[in-house]
Queue: 4 jobs
Job 1
Amino acid sequence: MVSIVNIFMDYWFAEIITIGNEVLSGKTVNTNASHIGRRLTSLGFTVRRITAVMDEVDEIASAFREAIDRKPRVIVSSGGLGPTWDDKTAEGLAKALGVNLELNKTAFDMILEKYMTRKIPITEERKKMAYMPYGAIPVENNEGIAPGIYVYHNNIDILATPGVPREMENVLENFINKMLRNRSNLKYLEDFIYVENVMESSLAPYVKELVKKYDIYIKTHPKSYEMSHPILEIQIAGSGKQEEEIKVKIEKVKFELLDAIKKLNGIIRNSL
Amino acid sequence: MVSIVNIFMDYWFAEIITIGNEVLSGKTVNTNASHIGRRLTSLGFTVRRITAVMDEVDEIASAFREAIDRKPRVIVSSGGLGPTWDDKTAEGLAKALGVNLELNKTAFDMILEKYMTRKIPITEERKKMAYMPYGAIPVENNEGIAPGIYVYHNNIDILATPGVPREMENVLENFINKMLRNRSNLKYLEDFIYVENVMESSLAPYVKELVKKYDIYIKTHPKSYEMSHPILEIQIAGSGKQEEEIKVKIEKVKFELLDAIKKLNGIIRNSL
């Protein structure tokens, strides 16, 4: 059986870490991880793991350390950069890297300027956001106060972004535009087929054959009741150096799938 | 500084594993993890980690193995139990436990009955859903075909549920009602305050003091722009053996927080 690893070339793999108890208790749905996942995928990376941990220094440190040990090309975290007692990402990351946490002068200037222009005094809590691991580079946050933290370590681009979605997205884009060193030259393309009246288990043997034949990624997502009223979303995804080549491969796979669906009396839909 | 661990007594901690490339690429938001997190939290568990991994046997096995090594009381996974080539959770779990994957007769009977009553023939793909780690107990799935997988290992209740949300929720409830051995006697309570016109960084020193004073969990979630128009959601959460005791503590904390908010010219809102 063809492994996905072959297709996606795991040299360009990425990991995501989200920090915050609210995700673990289910209070907050982890949309930050989805956004980061989509963005990294669009750049040709394959996200191989997402880890959500509590606001505790040791948990954060171990999540970063374990991710670093798996040698991805990029690690992006979100959460834990704010001014409160439970914002501990900078400390956790420093511990994972084995360096000191120290006042980053550039970060402090960024923060100071934002408060000063609004005539708001700087406090210990506000100053806290300028503490970063030794050697880190602050990343501009145009949507809020806390700068992102960028570190290049063991050939891995490591970025910590704030947890507020708008700020996370902004810091992530600034990092991609100005700092990201490991750039995949892979293109990623995907296409979908929506089908009614075909059970996932009926289509399964065809999908298995096509995955083998084309060395491509096909996944069926059941969207309704398997037996009484089956609706399937079929995802066909590939990545490679030549966009045209992937396009052609996906088209061929779609053609064969549509043929199989016809045999199984499936009804093609335009959307879900 | 008071650690959350003290408050939540991590003897009752839990982990969640979700299996599926669609979560990693950001195609699907991980609402399954949120549901499982909320449900386990309501039972008095503290979810300490959520790990999302690819549909690969080795990745699934390592996620389970690492979770088992951290000695939680419960591990709940979702995804990867279906009939297709990329459904590999049973195999990954067997590998993590160091046991064989084998045809589970009870599971096979469950599956057979569902197809037979609808006069649908059994195929290799459909039979696949009956393969489970040696010693596993199938968990009834009243919303679909694939049964859940329950294993009691190293004093840990391990449950694998399907990835379709409706099926996951049903299998989870069947497991809680019939199989869950490690039952927390802790009650968990939480309350919220919504406030306008107070910056998170202004409230931070008060929150820090109250966390110390009451040994309770307080978290501020900024919902708008920190400086131009700050809106905060303040979460106050506690758990313990006596429901009344936690209630009183949360009320006292709320009282002191409202006092601090008044000092900071905050405006209390009824909701976000």
Job 2
Amino acid sequence: MKFAQRTVKTSSAGLDAIFAASGPNVISFAGGYPDATLFPEHAMQAAFSESFAQHSGSLLQYSTTAGYLPLREKLADRMNRRDHLNLKADDILLTQGAQQGIDLTARLLLDKGDGVIVEGPTYIGGLAAFDAYEPTYYEVPIEEDGMDITKLQKALMQHQVKLIYTIPDFQNPTGTVMSVEKRQAMVQLANQYDVVILEDSPYRDLRYTGENLPTIKSFDTEGRVISLGSFSKILAPSLRLGWLTAAPELLAALTALKAAADVESSHLVAVAVDTFMNDNDLDAHIDAMKQVYQTKRDAMLNALERYMPKDVHFNHPDGGFFLWLTLPEGFDMQHFMTAELLPEYNVSLVPSHHLYASKSIENGARLNFTNVSEATIESGIKMLGQALNDALHPAQVNQI
Amino acid sequence: MKFAQRTVKTSSAGLDAIFAASGPNVISFAGGYPDATLFPEHAMQAAFSESFAQHSGSLLQYSTTAGYLPLREKLADRMNRRDHLNLKADDILLTQGAQQGIDLTARLLLDKGDGVIVEGPTYIGGLAAFDAYEPTYYEVPIEEDGMDITKLQKALMQHQVKLIYTIPDFQNPTGTVMSVEKRQAMVQLANQYDVVILEDSPYRDLRYTGENLPTIKSFDTEGRVISLGSFSKILAPSLRLGWLTAAPELLAALTALKAAADVESSHLVAVAVDTFMNDNDLDAHIDAMKQVYQTKRDAMLNALERYMPKDVHFNHPDGGFFLWLTLPEGFDMQHFMTAELLPEYNVSLVPSHHLYASKSIENGARLNFTNVSEATIESGIKMLGQALNDALHPAQVNQI
């Protein structure tokens, strides 16, 4: 019994190893979870009940692969308002979270060996999805304002590439936002080199400070940008509901691939989310979430300021779920976490190793601030500071 | 912008063309839908409400890729009882319907060009899922008691094959049940030729007459059988909830692939279905459904008996959703439907063409009897009989 070559690769992506690093007594900055206390449980319960009452005879039946039309209309309206786009419902496909959008895009475009440009670091689940199609990765470093465009251009000049995968808004894992200039430049390069851009943006609505920037899609002149959104971070992950926007020819092919993968997303869930949006102000709900997350982000920045050794760098994200630690070169974060931080301090984070397609950068880490309380942030970051101090400056340990 | 080779193939599978053949005035025997009037809407509404009340704080959060443990325990117990298996919860992965189980199995095993044995005819969605991995198909004809085992053996002797795809219980599209002897023989051949069997069995619980036969999995001695089940046909399709059972090594790899494809299935839906099963007797619900479906099957057999021309053959399935029409050789069902049956009689069915991987058999058709009323069955089959009479015996038309 021989597995396909793709399987051998995907199975070793190490997703499980990372998220297993949380137990009942562990302070986990490793996850990518929303704060469960912010879920609109009562309103969602009411939306499900109302959906049953109002959609008798069709709610539990098959629907269409594209998904429930009124919800797709709402999503189009919302993006048109928010992002000054000009979308119709038929430009949208409902998906199983944004994750399925990555999988379907890879399935649409990638034959074995085809070139994909990814950010370094990037979303580990993106790499896991791409792995199944055995691409050749070209990793372009993330700078403070997004992907290094000079290196992106160089990669496009030197290699045969079909897809650029980017998370422009509050990137997972770094929290970085891509500048307007780079968004425009990326589209121009995609046009020049005949490449598709996959704009994965599940955190876009979660900006705490600063002004929103236009989507990459808003600069798309040739129908080359596939955009992904998700209700996981703004409403609830267990809905498993996301959406995908693409030009008609791409969308038709992606819809056929979705039908082959799982027929369609849950009509029941789509109707309930549509009902929720009829009966509640989603934007007001998001605003309330943002206040809590901003406070948590500030608490983490404040604690980092106080407890990090001077040679540890951290960034100041304007939104999203994560910030990024950079340790001095040569530091092995994976070893530090498994040998010291987790067993001795009961604190976990995501070491950089698995977040790079190249697996070449060891001295970084992702910290999540949304699914931990302020008190836990304070005590956890304090312990992380001590542990890093111990590891970086062992001579000082006995003096504390 | 060049699509992957797999995409070009999948997009042309013709799924849409087939199911588009139903409008408001069309009597459709083409779909594969359950009867929506049989859905337990009130009980399901209550189960969702109770889930919100009892799982506050976790219901809307991420869960695990394997899925909600109590539901997997129930599924294991149910299969152990029904099929004399010895499964534990950890032998089961929740999926987006059985369809995702096909996709994940193909992803696990198939490199481009690898051999897959499929039944002729088979489930069109199975072919669509396999197409994405560009296998080489070997088509083995279905007989009255399942796959032709002599031809199966010959195919295994002559070709490099990695996977046998079979629907042993009330097969889609023919309604055929595979005999016990053939189930045993298939496992022996799989052992001998080092092949995995994918046992796709969404209709297994829907037997109206005769005795249930053991699953193929019950004869599995080497952990080579991956079994798929689904709530779509016994509870509701819009739950998009199915399950997959496989030996530990296979299951671990399939779970990693599921994580890469869509992270996990909806925890909310899994808890609600578990709650439904706590508060209701699923088997009693299925028994009630079976009574209705048996009546519809009998109505269709009765109408076929009365209205079909003598040279049209139809089978007598003991369960499931479908029966199979065989027309004289040379008859082109696809042409008949699009040129005569649909435009002139407003009746639709699924012609055999797309249901064969080889696309070589034109004189068959699938008829669905679950999603049509008895009165519609009577009038629709009467018109189908007239239309076939017109087509097969044009001289007789004026005498009716």
Job 3
Amino acid sequence: MVPHLVPRWPVCLFRWRAACTLGACVPQSAWARASRTPGPGSPRGAVGTSPLVRRGGSSSSSRAPEVMLTRERYPVQRLPFSVVSEEDLAAFERITPGRVVTDPEELEASNVDWLRTVRGCSKVLLKPQTTEEVSHILRYCHERNLAVNPQGGNTGMVGGSVPVFDEIILSTALMNQVISFHGVSGILVCQAGCILEELSRYVEERDFIMPLDLGAKGSCHIGGNVATNAGGLRFLRYGSLHGTVLGLEVVCPAPPPQVCTLLHPQVLADGTVLNCLTSLRKDNTGYDLKQLFIGSEGTLGVITAVSILCPPKPRAVNVAFLGCPGFAEVLQTFSTCKGMLGEILSAFEFMDAECMQLVGHHLGLVSPVQESPFYVLIETSGSRAGHDAEKLSSFLEHVLDFGLVTDGTLATDQRRVKMLWALRERITEALSRDGCVYKYDISLPVERLYDLVSDLRARLGPQAKHVVGYGHLGDGNLHLNVTAEAFSASLLGALEPYVYEWTAGQQGSVSAEHGLGFKKKDVLSYSKPPAALQLMQQLKALLDPKGILNPYKTLPARA
Amino acid sequence: MVPHLVPRWPVCLFRWRAACTLGACVPQSAWARASRTPGPGSPRGAVGTSPLVRRGGSSSSSRAPEVMLTRERYPVQRLPFSVVSEEDLAAFERITPGRVVTDPEELEASNVDWLRTVRGCSKVLLKPQTTEEVSHILRYCHERNLAVNPQGGNTGMVGGSVPVFDEIILSTALMNQVISFHGVSGILVCQAGCILEELSRYVEERDFIMPLDLGAKGSCHIGGNVATNAGGLRFLRYGSLHGTVLGLEVVCPAPPPQVCTLLHPQVLADGTVLNCLTSLRKDNTGYDLKQLFIGSEGTLGVITAVSILCPPKPRAVNVAFLGCPGFAEVLQTFSTCKGMLGEILSAFEFMDAECMQLVGHHLGLVSPVQESPFYVLIETSGSRAGHDAEKLSSFLEHVLDFGLVTDGTLATDQRRVKMLWALRERITEALSRDGCVYKYDISLPVERLYDLVSDLRARLGPQAKHVVGYGHLGDGNLHLNVTAEAFSASLLGALEPYVYEWTAGQQGSVSAEHGLGFKKKDVLSYSKPPAALQLMQQLKALLDPKGILNPYKTLPARA
């Protein structure tokens, strides 16, 4: 029996109970752009001023409070790199004329992460336009022992994209050209600084889509996506960047030494360009070197260009937003949906009731379905609208009949699809307005995914304002967030290492898609054995022997 | 207009013009098993005796002519490894009791590749059952400076799986246990020696399929598939193993040295087990080390276990076998099919008229459609038979109306699907019966894919018996094969480096999916720049400092 709450199944319907207010319905991408992207003309952008990214409930102040310096907040020691001198600035001016930024106000946006949790004190930002310029910069910095922080859209969650001390910021913002696009194969080759959303638009005009999509698309750079092995909303369907990235061009600080000196590297002072920018789906000639750099967070080399396989644009996209009575029903809905929607399933996201309360309270978004303990968002992407609608309709009828879902709404037109997605995509934003946020991004066996959230609620009690769980259920990826009015060491102590130990106990990953960056580098060993960690250190030493590239990130400090 | 030659479109029909004779219709997997797999009880298997894998037309002889030793046929020098002594054999007997093979007859099958083109003279084959045994073996061999040749199903095309000289053969044949399978996520964890076809059967019983399939499935090992980054028939749909392999357990000859000695490795004599055998779809904790080993052909470590993501088993599989009047029409059929079949397209293979002649002549297979310059095999896999049939029917009507296809046949039941696939899968076998085969496995921009075949036909003239092109068109992967009555240096000289230079001129890959192994290692530089090659050498030196693991393979000899 289809309950009365969903009167028009399987007709394509849209029940949006209450319209968003204009203010709360700032499109996510516009929000991202306004708050995250330092535009070329105003590099400071709105990071320092936008109320949207500031923590705490108030949005009336015209200026966010200053973020504490990382070196003051965390127990971290500056490594003995050189300090940028006037001569260095002059040299940089020769390499990137007119694109050496030293104005402190302009630097501010690139010194602070968008979550406003870490802050470096870099005195110089370079904006190369070509791979050769990047190579010259790295050669120079290697010679001079100057630390470098590669930076894309600065949208990372773990403090990996901003300096910890005074590292030189190497921004890919001006490396934003599409190099080629092949209309039959869908292979896109572009510079690393292209903004994901702009690439999406570019390939969509040519009947393809990007194989990844994420909330930060309005400002994140494709090079940063690859460097952090971004997951996102299309992962379930199109898989990992390790599969869809076909080629990379990367600059490493140190060149491969001559073969005869392999065991005792005699490093030549040169920024080696590693051109593996192939546009081939298959290439088994030797080791697949590009894989080393995917997810290495800019610590092994600077990605300067990317070749990526774009899937054909689906002709029909449907989004169903459903309410489920419990987590067991969420799981059963997932299994059912994999079977009945099969090849057209492109996303399966979930959020709990507290998430819905937060997007309602802070952003004025209203649930399109009746209040439920859990909500799932299911997206289908297919080549024939009629077939997709039939599949979806059979599926929805089934889950309603079996009580797995108690209410739901369906969207097929683009505007409504976006509105439903906003409920899920803007949770991060709502959380950042709720106070101090403790963020965890965890992979777990799907059947245990929510246990940690319930467990923590009981453990933390009134210490926490909210404990919420949401994320990419289809990928076994939980975003666990805890909010409190202000930072509290005792709350942190109750969370860590408890969360990491709990995760390790389930053979989970303590960083599913956000990476380790600065903030999570010390928890690597919860998910990787000592032998793996040692090999990582060796790879770092091989490719960046002086350790100048994105120091203090990804790997724990050496003992 | 639908031409009269295909009278029953869009009805699901099957026009098999002539039944295969029983002899010629030996199921591919049985053929593979009989000819390639040294079974535990009879390790020599049929390699030495089966007429099916012997070159030359005759199948009456009971014993194939002996294959020339690699060291006699190719200009290769033995490296200064130790020679296995009686003490070594005693030590191996302690590590793998009762599983140390020294009988020359038994060793023969593992010394010769299945194409019967290269032959080593190993005196010992070890059959470990556990990762710990592999670790002990590698530790021992590292200490004693003994070279090791890891071997799976010995089905490689480039001589990577057999010794060149007297390397110890480390077979994964007895490491054939499934470790776990997760019925919701479809994640399979198993030992490296599991045979692909047996894994397929195992997961199919549980409503999943393996993400890869290839002609050698009846004997190839999953560990070997991963070590060689096998592509195969499902690549178009499920992508590369770099995306579908979730975790690996690998044993390296040398352990990571201590962090403090990174630049001057002080190698400890231990076979380090690198356990990255995670069962998570997402895990961004540090560098993705497993990627290093995918496609490294056993030169960096021995893969002992694999965690792999299996897609749900499609409920409907259709195969269309079509005749095309020209290569331009093959390409247009591909573009049309991507658009109209969309998400259900799971394979797009092509073969030319000469391929069809060869499978007819040598294997007695008969074309199910009228003689055409080109044939394509299109497979769909979907979750709803009715929808798939409708899509396929619209597509077929379109390509026939537009003259892209002149004749075709469609199969939906499993037996007929297999018969159509046999036409494509058994080309390799037919070629091996045609005489001496010169094999090339190339990636090219799809629109230039066949130009090289036409070009070579003109270039070689009567020197060649056959010049044929077939392969995974959907992946831009051409299998180019040239046959002649016997080996000829002048024919080889006309082929190489011409084929490689032609490919490099198109920014193609000189090895799309077969790898480099022994036979192609010296052509690596046609597809990779010097900086990449040097980094590969460094990685080899890092993980296998004495170079004991699968020597003479993958990387060119050092100057």
Job 4
Amino acid sequence: MGFWKSLFSTSDRLSAPVKIQQEGRGAIAAEPRIVFSVDRELDLYELEELCDAVGWSRRPLRKVRKALQHSFLVVSMWEERPARRRLIGFARATSDHAFNATIWDVVVHPQFQNKGLGKALMKYTIKKLKSEDISNITLFADPQVVEFYRRLGFLLDPEGIKGMFWYPD
Amino acid sequence: MGFWKSLFSTSDRLSAPVKIQQEGRGAIAAEPRIVFSVDRELDLYELEELCDAVGWSRRPLRKVRKALQHSFLVVSMWEERPARRRLIGFARATSDHAFNATIWDVVVHPQFQNKGLGKALMKYTIKKLKSEDISNITLFADPQVVEFYRRLGFLLDPEGIKGMFWYPD
């Protein structure tokens, strides 16, 4: 699953702990932790389940695997309990390893939204890209998340530069 | 200079010949041809000269080399005469090799602009990306070239999707 493993350090714990809902496990459940990683092996079915949960169209796993292999950065976000870990967020970036990186497929599981975890995921992603000396981080934002990215410091159409798409027939 | 060499076939001649100014070489000059390639070795100084000609800021050659090595596709456009070839256009794309490709650094030498060569360069680039089964071709267009890309079939902010940029401090 790829060469980005060699580029970054191993998993990082979230520096500012985020309070997570206990999912009704009661008093015996240990406090779950949120962990970010750029080098954990991903189960493609677990990733598909995460993308299903936010209503994305299914994509062939063969192509998903290829896209992960050829992404510059693959970030995963996990809820960790003593007994199990669960994939709750994901983002990746393509890049020329020098000037430009483009972030794709940012997702946070609906049960974990509105807790600051999307922001934490993006900050972690930006930090990793900055550490690789990327000059310019770009993305294409759906209308409902433009404000979210703006608050993170992304500029909309700077100097009139416009995002454009071409879809094969 | 890179793995994209293995991905595509060798140089293609422009199917519809483009009339090129003869640069005052007189009657003995053979008709120059325009040739496109995805696998020709590029002289970084010649590429820098081309980018200088359109007024781009200089970039460290070390980073340019790295960016070319890690681009999915590097397209060059050449004017060929019997005695010499000259780099007159360039474009490249980053990609995850599966879903998304993003086109960067599209340039045509000023002496060769307004002859349909920018359009030919982009059509060639799109054809190559299509042949690799890329689902989605994107780019970030400066205001003065939005119309150019629109005429090529690129959509501006489709479904309200917005291009956003984050510049490291």
